[in-house]
């Protein structure tokens, strides 16, 4: 496990998500990376069910790379890493925190390995409608983001271009600390929230909710 | 993606039901009990395994009637101090059942978690309800777990130094428990047989906690 | 005299019935010994003995009863001895005695000990008479001493055993139900633990309406000692009984 950066990969007008994913996969394969299976990161949102109290949210994320774990992230960014049995605990809180309908969002796709790097090309879907593409790049041998950011950025820019210049907030805040999977999950959550914000009106129409 | 939890529940392999018998032994007779347990349980050749835990009970309370308070018990090892020992335990209400069932049965979720759980629960709206330290010995025989432990109130200063803490009583609490998947009632018989072997030193019984709260 | 004879007559069938019972018990026991000696076990032997002895007891009770005049006041003597076979007698004794002759009468109608036994008794009596009274007193005292010593030993052992069994019954006092309840209430509901946390009394009362606000945790710890004394007090009557 190393340092990870997750980028949003734009889908140009007039192209389908599927086409963009395929071309992205092709360019990664051209680098010399090998396919090493599938991956999936999913996220469900629970929110306080009482109206007049302070609204709170708990986001529960799972990653196929860590099948026995569950990542619970609060609004403030506090991330609890727990056994996957934590899902059972959330059910016990159903009178306080209720699952928001149609909030399940996931990034799913191919996983590649290329030397010390791991790429994950995920197509994001919210309530089973396509929302966009997320590219995860991991540099495995290092756990201090500040020590390998340059390397990671260079690899990323060869695929996503200028977007790679932008440091994810999570990494920006803890360049000198040990990087953990919880930080990766926070990046995913940030992107997921962005997708939800962008697309709430169209989703509401297209899915009829 | 179907997570491991739901898969576990569906196939009924996730252990989430606790069978429990409880009792106590006066401090003066603790050694006799430990000696006997050592003989009865697995790993008789090793000295009893000590533990020293700190438990914080967090409560989430709501305003409406249907929002029964929910308790999460957060536990960690004080000695040896171990940051990976944090876990949350949720316990359902105990079912006493009829005479044919020999033990208490309650839902039980043990969830290991990261060490920021106290901050996390506070931000979720939980409040610390009470806390205590528990120090004692741990035995196991097959699936059965036996703990012989003393309960300590936290020192007013909040430190976890055992010397400044006040013991709850002159007895050690003895608990015999098994956490198993639902429906494995036969384990209760094994537990009863085991408890019989500890008589008359201690009486391990199903103690109705609701009855205690009325007293 | 007439009256006594009448009484005797009326009570004779009773005595005969009792004797017959004893006879039957002995007969069946003998039968068993002869025919079932291979399978006979000790408990059933004892049962048979017990049956016979209880029959003997009831017979002696009948004899001592008020309805029967003291038998020793009656004399029995043979009126006629005959070497002839007596059919009637044979029938009465179920074939054990065929005639009443010189040979059998001394055995059946004897009221004194046999002559050689009588001799032995006389010998002992004269021997006792020759011992000086001082000596006899000494021996008597010795015997009394030894007997009382043995009695003491037996009594002390009995006491010891009683104490041991008492201790065994007292063993359950290695645990206390009150303590168990205290501990379980503490870990399951935080009873007695919450007072020292930051939560205010008011809040606590809301959570635990059953707990008196003034209740100090110390009192919880003291409960077992009172329980112990009550148990001890309660066990005294049994020790005396």
From TrEMBL, chain A:
<keyword id="KW-0010">Activator</keyword>
<comment type="function">
    <text>Component of the Mediator complex, a coactivator involved in the regulated transcription of nearly all RNA polymerase II-dependent genes. Mediator functions as a bridge to convey information from gene-specific regulatory proteins to the basal RNA polymerase II transcription machinery. Mediator is recruited to promoters by direct interactions with regulatory proteins and serves as a scaffold for the assembly of a functional preinitiation complex with RNA polymerase II and the general transcription factors.</text>
</comment>
<protein>
    <recommendedName>
        <fullName>Mediator of RNA polymerase II transcription subunit 20</fullName>
    </recommendedName>
</protein>
<dbReference type="GO" id="GO:0016592">
    <property type="term" value="C:mediator complex"/>
</dbReference>
<keyword id="KW-0804">Transcription</keyword>
<dbReference type="InterPro" id="IPR013921">
    <property type="entry name" value="Mediator_Med20"/>
</dbReference>
<comment type="similarity">
    <text>Belongs to the Mediator complex subunit 20 family.</text>
</comment>
<dbReference type="GO" id="GO:0006357">
    <property type="term" value="P:regulation of transcription by RNA polymerase II"/>
</dbReference>
<keyword id="KW-0539">Nucleus</keyword>
<dbReference type="Pfam" id="PF08612">
    <property type="entry name" value="Med20"/>
</dbReference>
<keyword id="KW-0805">Transcription regulation</keyword>
<dbReference type="GO" id="GO:0003713">
    <property type="term" value="F:transcription coactivator activity"/>
</dbReference>
<comment type="subunit">
    <text>Component of the Mediator complex.</text>
</comment>
UniProtKB/TrEMBL annotation, chain B:
<protein>
    <recommendedName>
        <fullName>Mediator of RNA polymerase II transcription subunit 18</fullName>
    </recommendedName>
</protein>
<keyword id="KW-0010">Activator</keyword>
<dbReference type="GO" id="GO:0006369">
    <property type="term" value="P:termination of RNA polymerase II transcription"/>
</dbReference>
<dbReference type="InterPro" id="IPR019095">
    <property type="entry name" value="Mediator_Med18"/>
</dbReference>
<keyword id="KW-0805">Transcription regulation</keyword>
<dbReference type="GO" id="GO:0006357">
    <property type="term" value="P:regulation of transcription by RNA polymerase II"/>
</dbReference>
<keyword id="KW-0804">Transcription</keyword>
<dbReference type="GO" id="GO:0016592">
    <property type="term" value="C:mediator complex"/>
</dbReference>
<dbReference type="GO" id="GO:0003712">
    <property type="term" value="F:transcription coregulator activity"/>
</dbReference>
<dbReference type="Pfam" id="PF09637">
    <property type="entry name" value="Med18"/>
</dbReference>
<dbReference type="GO" id="GO:0070847">
    <property type="term" value="C:core mediator complex"/>
</dbReference>
<comment type="function">
    <text>Component of the Mediator complex, a coactivator involved in the regulated transcription of nearly all RNA polymerase II-dependent genes. Mediator functions as a bridge to convey information from gene-specific regulatory proteins to the basal RNA polymerase II transcription machinery. Mediator is recruited to promoters by direct interactions with regulatory proteins and serves as a scaffold for the assembly of a functional preinitiation complex with RNA polymerase II and the general transcription factors.</text>
</comment>
<comment type="similarity">
    <text>Belongs to the Mediator complex subunit 18 family.</text>
</comment>
<keyword id="KW-0539">Nucleus</keyword>
<comment type="subunit">
    <text>Component of the Mediator complex.</text>
</comment>
UniProtKB/TrEMBL annotation, chain C:
<comment type="similarity">
    <text>Belongs to the Mediator complex subunit 8 family.</text>
</comment>
<keyword id="KW-0804">Transcription</keyword>
<dbReference type="GO" id="GO:0070847">
    <property type="term" value="C:core mediator complex"/>
</dbReference>
<feature type="region of interest" description="Disordered">
    <location>
        <begin position="205"/>
        <end position="241"/>
    </location>
</feature>
<dbReference type="GO" id="GO:0016592">
    <property type="term" value="C:mediator complex"/>
</dbReference>
<dbReference type="GO" id="GO:0003712">
    <property type="term" value="F:transcription coregulator activity"/>
</dbReference>
<dbReference type="InterPro" id="IPR019364">
    <property type="entry name" value="Mediatior_Med8_fun/met"/>
</dbReference>
<dbReference type="GO" id="GO:0000978">
    <property type="term" value="F:RNA polymerase II cis-regulatory region sequence-specific DNA binding"/>
</dbReference>
<comment type="function">
    <text>Component of the Mediator complex, a coactivator involved in the regulated transcription of nearly all RNA polymerase II-dependent genes. Mediator functions as a bridge to convey information from gene-specific regulatory proteins to the basal RNA polymerase II transcription machinery. Mediator is recruited to promoters by direct interactions with regulatory proteins and serves as a scaffold for the assembly of a functional preinitiation complex with RNA polymerase II and the general transcription factors.</text>
</comment>
<keyword id="KW-0010">Activator</keyword>
<keyword id="KW-0805">Transcription regulation</keyword>
<protein>
    <recommendedName>
        <fullName>Mediator of RNA polymerase II transcription subunit 8</fullName>
    </recommendedName>
</protein>
<feature type="compositionally biased region" description="Low complexity">
    <location>
        <begin position="205"/>
        <end position="218"/>
    </location>
</feature>
<keyword id="KW-0539">Nucleus</keyword>
<dbReference type="Pfam" id="PF10232">
    <property type="entry name" value="Med8"/>
</dbReference>
């Amino acid at each position: 496990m190393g340092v990870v950066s997750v980028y949003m990969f734009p889908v140009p007008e007039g192209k389908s998500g599927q086409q963009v994913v395929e071309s992205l996969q092709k360019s990664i394969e051209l680098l010399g990376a090998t396919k090493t299976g599938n991956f999936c990161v999913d996220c469900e949102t629970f929110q306080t069910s009482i109206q007049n109290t302070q609204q709170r949210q708990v986001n529960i994320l799972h990653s196929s790379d860590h099948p026995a774990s569950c990542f619970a992230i609060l609004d403030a960014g506090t991330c609890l890493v727990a056994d996957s049995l934590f899902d059972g605990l959330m059910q016990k809180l159903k009178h306080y925190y209720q699952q928001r309908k149609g909030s399940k969002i996931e990034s799913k796709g191919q996983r590649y390995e290329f030397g010390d790097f791991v790429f994950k090309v995920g197509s994001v879907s919210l309530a089973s409608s396509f929302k966009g593409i997320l590219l995860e790049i991991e540099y495995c041998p290092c756990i201090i983001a500040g020590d390998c950011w340059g390397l990671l950025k260079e690899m990323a820019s060869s695929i996503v271009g200028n977007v790679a210049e932008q440091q994810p907030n999570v990494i920006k805040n803890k360049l000198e600390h040990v990087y953990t999977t919880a930080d990766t999950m926070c990046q995913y959550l940030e992107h997921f929230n962005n997708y939800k914000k962008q697309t709430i009106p169209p989703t509401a129409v297209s899915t009829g909710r | 993606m179907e997570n491991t939890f739901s898969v576990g529940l569906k196939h009924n392999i996730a252990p989430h039901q606790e069978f429990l018998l409880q009792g106590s032994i006066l401090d003066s007779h603790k050694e006799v009990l430990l000696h006997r347990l050592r003989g009865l349980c697995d790993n008789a050749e090793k000295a009893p395994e000590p533990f020293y835990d700190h438990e914080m009970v967090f409560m989430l309370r709501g305003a409406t009637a249907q929002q029964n308070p929910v308790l999460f018990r957060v536990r960690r090892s004080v000695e040896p101090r171990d940051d990976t020992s944090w876990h949350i335990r949720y316990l359902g209400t105990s079912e006493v059942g009829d005479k044919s069932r020999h033990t208490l049965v309650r839902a039980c979720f043990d969830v290991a978690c990261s060490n920021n759980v106290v901050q996390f629960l506070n931000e979720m709206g939980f409040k610390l309800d009470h806390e205590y330290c528990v120090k004692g010995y741990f035995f196991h025989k097959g699936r059965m777990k036996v703990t012989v432990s003393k309960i300590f109130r936290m020192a007013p200063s909040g430190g976890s130094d055992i010397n400044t803490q006040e013991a709850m009583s002159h007895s050690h609490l003895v608990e015999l428990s098994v956490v198993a998947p639902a429906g494995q009632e036969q384990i209760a018989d094994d537990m009863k047989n085991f408890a019989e072997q500890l008589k008359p030193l201690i009486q391990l019984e199903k103690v109705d906690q609701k009855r205690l709260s009325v007293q | 005299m007439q009256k006594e004879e009448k009484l005797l007559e009326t009570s004779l069938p009773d005595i005969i019935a009792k004797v017959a019972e004893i006879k039957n018990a002995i007969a069946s026991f003998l039968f068993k010994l002869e025919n079932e000696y291979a399978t006979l076990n000790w408990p059933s032997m004892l049962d048979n003995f017990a049956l016979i002895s209880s029959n003997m007891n009831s017979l002696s009770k009948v004899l001592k009863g008020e309805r029967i005049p003291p038998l020793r006041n009656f004399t029995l003597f043979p009126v006629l001895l005959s070497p002839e076979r007596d059919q009637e007698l044979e029938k009465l004794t179920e074939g054990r005695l065929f005639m009443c002759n010189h040979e059998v009468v001394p055995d059946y109608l004897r009221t004194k000990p046999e002559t050689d036994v009588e001799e032995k008794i006389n010998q002992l009596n004269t021997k006792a008479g020759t011992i000086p009274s001082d000596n006899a007193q000494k021996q008597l005292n010795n015997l009394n001493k030894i007997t009382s010593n043995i009695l003491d030993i037996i009594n002390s052992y009995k006491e010891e055993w009683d104490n041991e069994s008492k201790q065994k019954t007292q063993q359950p006092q290695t645990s206390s139900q009150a303590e168990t309840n205290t501990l379980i209430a503490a870990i399951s509901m935080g009873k007695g633990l919450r007072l020292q946390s930051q939560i205010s009394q008011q809040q606590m009362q809301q959570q635990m309406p059953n707990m008196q606000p003034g209740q100090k945790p110390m009192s919880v710890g003291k409960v077992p000692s009172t329980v112990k004394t009550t148990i001890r007090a309660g066990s005294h009557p049994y020790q005396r009984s």
